[in-house]
Amino acid sequence: MDVIKIIEKLPYAKPFLFVDNLSHIDSSGAAGSFCFQKDLDFYEGHFKQLPVTPGVILTECCAQIGLVCLGIFLLSETLETKTNDLAVAFSSSQMEFYLPVYPGETVYVSSEKLYFRFNKLKCKVKMHNAARELVCKGELAGMIKYSTHGA
Amino acid sequence: MKEENYYQQLKGIVKPYLPEDVTVDDISPDSHFINELNINSANLVDIVLDVEDAFEITLENDDMDQMQTVNDAMAIIDKKRRSK
User: Fold this and answer.
1) Residues B79 and B60 sit within 8 Å (Cβ to Cβ)
2) What digits encode the pLDDT tens for the residues A21-75?
3) pLDDT tens, B25-59?
4) Are A102 and A51 contacting, i.e. CB atoms less than 8 angstroms apart?
5) Which of A45, A69, A107, A124 could form a disulfide with A112 if both were Cys (CB 3.0 to 4.6 A apart)?
């Protein structure tokens, strides 16, 4: 499955889509980027007078690129029926943050699959900034599957 | 005797995945992992992975679907151990 199709299958839309590009994907991991545009809503409140990208949003960006995109790719490799009803659920996150991400910055996420069994995908993820400095890293897991109608 | 061993070993595997309001004493052979022990589907996968390691077996998707209660798990472990 090519990267354009994977991004199309993502169950997110603006203002909660945090994937611009996927630069690489294979059965062991995914890599992609996202630019945090200066006009994103949450900068008005996080923080007052000092816009910084919230850690939860960085975590979400890591999850969308590293976990969900990879999950869609891995599901495409199985014989599972291809409906359009992708069901995802975030199940655990353990992240550490090292550098702030300011409005207008582009971040680069890469993931490394730890396991994908019984629809649970667990990955190590890392996020770097444009200067190739480590922004955050951790382990994320979620459930991902194509549900049959009504289920 | 073997059954009892499986049961005690399984309880030890399940214990760290129990939510705060469920204790290891709440586990009985009939306990339903999701409906009674309040284990979510993501943690149930972790239990299965730990069971695979502990009993040196491999479970398939069908086994996972059938593994609803503690008794179901013991039956699957027993079946897999016998066919090894």
Assistant:
1) no
2) 999 999 999 999 999 999 999 999 999 999 999 999 999 999 999 999 999 999 9
3) 999 999 999 999 999 999 999 999 999 999 999 99
4) yes
5) A124
pTM over 0.90: yes
Report the relative pairing of strands A21-26 and A29-35 from DSSP bridges.
antiparallel
- Please list, in sequence order, all residues whose beta carbon lies within 8 angstroms of the beta carbon of residue B52, skipping any fewer than 6 positions away: B58, B59
Q: Can you tell me the distance from the alpha carbon of A88 to that of A113, in angstroms, rounded to the nearest whole number?
A: 17
Which of A118, A120, A139 best probes binding to B when mutated, by most B CB atoms within 10 angstroms? A118
8 Å CB contact of B42 and A118: no
What does residue A12 show for φ and ψ, rounded to 5 degrees?
-115, 155
CB contact under 8 A, A92 and B64: no
- Phi–psi pair at A87, nearest 5 degrees: -115, 125
Which residues from chain A sit within 8 angstroms of residue B41, using beta carbons?
A: 120, 143
| Short-list A145, A141, A147, CA closest to A91 | A141
Q: Is the CB of A117 less than 8 angstroms away from the CB of B41?
A: no
CB of B42 less than 8 A from some CB of A: yes
3-class state of residue A36 by DSSP: coil
Alpha carbon distance A77, A110 (integer Å)? 20
Cβ-contact A110, A126 below 8 angstroms: yes
Residue in chain B closest to A91 (alpha carbons) equals B42
Minimal CA–CA distance to A136: which of A69, A57, A78, A80?
A: A57
Please give the structure tokens belonging to residue A17.
């889509």
